[in-house]
Amino acid sequence: MEAGNIFFSFKGIKMKNSFIDYSKKSFRLIFDNPILFVPALIQIFSLLITILPLINYIGDNNSFNTFTPAYFPALLILIFFLVIINLLIEIGVLFMIKEVVLYNETSIRSLFKGIKKYFVRIFFGSIIIAVVFGILSAIIAVPLFILTNLRILSFIVIFIFILALSTFIYMWETILVYEDCGVFKSIDLSFRFAKMNFGLLFLVNLLDAILTGDNKSKLNSNQQRKPINIDLPTPFFIDLIKPLSITLIVLLSLISIVLDLFFLTLAFVIYDDRRDMLRSEIELTKE
Length: 287
Prior knowledge:
There is one protein chain. The protein has helices at about 20-30, 40-60, 70-105, 110-145, 150-170, 170-180, 185-195, 200-210, 235-275, 280-285; strands at about 10, 15. By secondary structure, it is mostly helical. The two termini are about 40 Å apart. A two-stranded antiparallel ribbon has the order 1-2. The protein has one domain (about 10-215, about 230-285).
């Protein structure tokens, strides 16, 4: 066995690619095809046009005092706009990554081709998965909260359950785009693929959740309906914080986007290398 490599075998299939090998190949493909960063620039632009009105509002009023719940609908619209734009771009990027992995080349036209071809399937698939996850989490969480006072233990159990289950469906979008199949077939193949590669996918899923997962902090249950009362000290401070805020947003967005691109590419690289494990199921899909 060569140093640094991990051998896997399954029904006569022998592979020697480790997580490190897959990671190296993913980064190489990304930086050999810098056009993959173009959608990232679109994401940053959409983020800025979403956030800038809020920053300008704060700067013009020198205070958060006048920011009341009446402005929340406008914020929700902005957030919804940002979510849809990011979803569209991510779907298009999935198709671009598929071309990069298979042919080591792609174009910006593939971004729009991927959006047109896969948006409906991935959008409704995401809704279905979110609903199922919500129901299953509630089934586990409610008895734990009712029967025990160990809330920390309950959260740990729910987290482990979600992480384990999400590992089984981690590849569904990748498989849907790679095989050009339906939502339920891609989920089925994702389950089968994960059973054969659970350790590797669990590691990838865990790192993906830690490095790129959204930190969804819960709102305080004792919300007050009065305006937020925070005064910004001076006009000088306002003039200073605007460019700093924008710079910080762009920097954090770049880091997040590079990591997202890495994990999306990593999923395709892993699946492309180990796809033969699902040969019989894939042949049935194509028929």
